Amino acid sequence: MKVLKFGGTSVGSPQRMKEVSKLINDGEKKIVVLSAMSGTTNSLVEISDYLHKNNPEGANEVINNLERKYKQHVNELYSTDEYKQKTWSLIKDIFNGIRSFTKDIFTAFEEKVILAQGEIMSTNMVTNYLLECGVKTVLLPALDIIRTDKNSEPDFNYIKDKSVTALKENPDYEIYITQGFICRNAYGEIDNLLRGGSDYTACLIGAAIQ
Fold this sequence. Notes:
The protein is 55% helix and 11% strand. The protein has helices spanning 14-24, 40-52, 56-77, 81-100, 108-115, 117-132, 156-169, 197-208, and strands spanning 2-6, 30-34, 137-139, 175-179, 182-184, 190-192. α7 (156-169) links the parallel β3 and β4 (175-179). The longest helix is centred in the N-terminal third of the chain and has 22 residues, at 56-77.
């Protein structure tokens, strides 16, 4: 079993996603850790900054622009209406979730939830593209596998147990996709491993499954 990691530039466009999918589809079992599409995390940071400054109008403008970009990506990535509709439905729900934060109190907790959405979108897009291509692929959410302890350090025993269990429960797949960067903290809240976190995720999973 190999663990491969691809950063934001590698999945930065529909064409790049197709190239990565071709590269990883070689018949060998592997876990693939993906970052958010390049530019997405910066946009999510910008949205969060507007909300911290109590400027929902500015936040909504960035949200709308990013949503339009993803709509175009989905139309370019998939060749069937089934997968276009399936993926867009999921991504539209994510953007509606981000919009909901413009109507309430905004704290560092909500910001971390927003920052996690880039990886969630990119991994679902690539997973669905591989499925459309007939590749045996499954998404293993990082929020179910990666956790930090009360000192904000990786809880390695937890990560090892959850990684091994997830693979045992999904034995018949060629490619396992998961998110880099994002995790939960010791209290079960959505958190992250800071910038460069996708490399960190891949290393932690590699060590966990030896």
